Amino acid sequence: MAFSNQQLGWKPFFENQLIDSDLDNNYPVRISKIYRTRVETWSERGEQSIDIGLFSEIKNIAVGDWLLMPNMGERPLRTLDRSSELLRKAAGNRAEKQLIAANIDTLFIVTSCNQDFNESRIERFLVLATEARIRPVIVLTKADLSDDPEQFKSSANELYHDVVIEYVDARSATNVEVLKRWCRAGETVVLIGSSGVGKSTLINSLADAGQRTLEIRESDEKGRHTTTSRSLHMLHGGGMFIDTPGIRELQLTESEKGIEDTFDDVSQYFGQCKFRNCQHTGEKGCAIMVAIASGDLEERRWHSYLKLQDEHQQYAKKVSEKRVDARSQGRTNKSLKRRKK
Fold first, then answer.
1. Per CATH, is 263-316 categorized as 1.10.40.50?
2. What CA–CA distance (Å, rounded) separates 264 from 210?
């Protein structure tokens, strides 16, 4: 099936990266799926499969990327710069990033009105979105199964200024119409959330994508992962969704701006303490402690802020150490070369 570039989210941002002669002998394609041995793409020429070995840097491609392909040949010429990208820290102790998806306009943070609802997890997703300059929308599912769904909306509303929150019944195509305003033609949305919250069912209702769903376990209201690979889905008459596997762990990379934007209710007190070197650990005249004591600042928010800041700083420290090690190794290699000469 062929799609126009506009349907696939082609915007002036990408057009401006091309020179006049680029489209004479080449054409743009967008990555729709990435498998172990191949990459699937969509374009005006239809669906295409590219051998994974033809990419020079496999780790540096993501679902949602735009590639420039030659009219004659199978190897992509280059990956176009991204308008946005979702990143998380890769597993392990090394300071490496893992791409989740690329060129996204809106992030649907999907959580259900049950035991899955977790403010700290939602805050992580909000930091992820704001750091990447992506519009966040909190989507609350399974409200019909909750005795008091408004308490979940009220809690979510306190996590980020002016954040949009929507209730949906993921099984009803009519009910999820409220999300269509972020799913216009050419717009790309990512669904993110833990397993069992109804992401796959939501995609079924929005895009009729045929995602396999599984029943959640009654004991802890958690489900098993039903999506095994990230994939791009076309919404009938509208935009696109990038589905992601259920994320049980999301460690942040460089996220200073995202943290400050998400926790502006915390950062507003910085600089108001009695002493300039206040560590906010109980010192006299600490504006943070005064705000917590008075109820103006939720203590949980303060501790969540500290945890995410520590995570960000630990990652930044590892990146710095990695650069130092690389420079040191470079000097060692140069010294060995001189000795050999």
1. yes
2. 40
d(CA 141, CA 139): 6
What's the CA gap between 92 and 152, in Å, rounded?
Answer: 33
Cα angle 91, 93, 94; round to 5: 90
Residues 6+ apart with CB under 8 A from 242: 63, 64, 101, 104, 188, 189, 190, 191, 230, 231, 232, 233
Cβ-based neighbour number of residue 187 at 10 Å: 19
Q: Quickly tell me which residue has 């041995």 as its tokens.
A: 37
Pairing of strands 240-243, 188-192: parallel
Structural domain spans, the chain: 12-79, 97-243, 263-316
Q: What six digits make up the tokens of 70? A: 């030659």
Quick count: other Cβ atoms within 10 Å of Cβ 324? 10
Distance, in Å, from the CA atom of 208 to the CA atom of 200, rounded to the nearest integer, reads 10
Dihedrals φ, ψ of 106, to 5°?
A: -135, 140
Interval 69-88: pLDDT, tens: 999 888 898 999 999 999 88
Whether domain 12-79 has CATH 1.10.760: the reply is no
Rounded Cα distance between 197 and 109, Å, is: 10
pTM of the predicted model, to two decimals?
0.81
pLDDT digits (tens, 9 = 90+) for 150-206: 999 999 999 998 899 998 887 777 778 888 889 989 999 998 887 777 777 887 787
